[in-house]
Design brief:
Rossmann fold, 44% helix, alpha/beta, 7-stranded parallel β-sheet, globular, 365 residues
């Protein structure tokens, strides 16, 4: 099977491509590397702004389009799969539709349905756009509403969702917001390539302090809740300065992020999520405990009835503070949760197993 993965978020497509290739399929990734994260790709579509950057980007895109023909499956990371305005992406989508067999839309992040459904229908108890029946009004939530509702981005998302052959959702939350497309939509976990050569932190001796890690995307800190998580961690560190070490990574490339992450005992990530996403899953594969989204719905959609490796937090400062403090005070929990984390990722997110789930889905289209 020939597969084109167009765009990338959080290394999803780059990792999936490795799985497809290992299973004997031809796969091409065309992306911008997810901006400064600089994930690997076969066709580089990174855009530098300014007149020269705009001209260079359009030239490289025009040269790349003939290479995007003749695939059995084209999977889009998002309706906005290129660094162009939505109204300019629509004809490129139609071009891809004409020159390839099956089109698949990924529900892996920000889009119209994620924005609209969580704002007005609210199937989740909390999300990036609501706390129960209360609508979030922070600046970034409002900005995304303005970008996606009643705009060309909404039109593009509706066009692709209606026209494509299949839709893949990568988290329980995205699955919940695409229910109107349940006839052609499926849930498949995110893929993680487990690096068995890297020593995990399991059974490492807690000599003086818990090593806690948090990654900050400065532009999305309030929106993702890492601002609250960071404040809670700093408060616990101030109370137990000899028992907690906090490392902060802010807007660093993926390779550097991984190096900084290695050796941590736990990671703080995604306050408003029900589920661990790619950064958390990568950490868990190394035996690093995820303090973040671990609601029952996450385990249920995976069919997991035994493992509970995630320290679930509610979207409040108090919940974050309490869970961090309890881990500091009870370090005997750490080896158990670390071991469960590795087993959990191997069981549900191994990149070869996930790639096969994608191939099985493609065969049904």
């Amino acid at each position: 099977m020939r597969i084109l993965l167009l765009g990338d978020y959080s290394n999803v497509h780059a990792t999936l491509a490795e799985g497809f290739k290992a299973l004997g399929h031809e796969c091409v990734v065309a992306s911008d590397g997810d901006s400064w994260k600089n994930y690997p790709r076969d066709i580089d579509l990174k855009r530098e702004y300014g007149l020269r950057g705009n001209v260079s980007y359009l030239w490289r895109l025009l040269k790349a389009l003939p290479q995007m023909k003749g695939f059995d499956v084209v999977q889009l990371i998002n309706p906005m799969f290129l660094e162009l305005k939505a109204e300019r992406i629509a004809p490129i989508y139609r071009y891809l539709r004409r020159h390839n067999d099956k089109m698949v839309l990924g529900s892996f992040g920000m889009d119209y349905y994620w924005t609209y459904v969580n704002t007005y229908q609210r199937p989740l108890r909390y999300s990036d756009f609501n706390f129960g029946d209360t609508i979030r009004t922070d600046a970034e939530a409002e900005r995304y509403r303005r970008e996606w509702i009643g705009t060309p981005k909404e039109h593009l998302n509706r066009l692709i969702a209606d026209d494509c052959d299949g839709i893949v959702t990568g988290l329980y939350e995205y699955w919940a917001t695409y229910q109107q497309f349940k006839e052609k939509m499926t849930f498949i976990p995110f893929p993680i390539r487990i690096n068995t050569s890297h020593p995990s932190t399991v059974n490492s001796q807690l000599s003086t302090s818990l090593r806690l890690f948090i990654g900050i995307n400065k532009g999305r800190s309030v929106y993702k809740g890492t601002d609250i998580m960071l404040r809670a961690a700093q408060a616990v560190q101030a109370k137990y300065p000899d028992r907690l070490t906090l490392q902060v990574a802010e807007c660093v490339p993926f390779a550097q992020y991984q190096e900084m992450l290695n050796g941590s005992h736990a990671i703080l990530d995604q306050l408003y999520s029900y589920t661990p996403a790619m950064n958390s899953l990568l950490a868990m594969s190394k035996g690093i405990i995820n303090i973040g989204g671990g609601e029952l719905e996450n385990y249920d959609i995976l069919g997991e009835t035994e493992l509970r490796p995630i320290i679930n937090v509610q979207p409040t400062y108090e919940s974050c503070y309490e869970e961090i403090e309890q881990l500091v005070l009870h370090p005997e929990r750490i080896p158990i949760l670390q071991q469960q984390s590795i087993v959990y990722v191997k069981k549900h997110h191994d990149y070869l197993k996930v790639a096969q789930q994608y191939l099985d889905f493609y065969q049904t289209l």
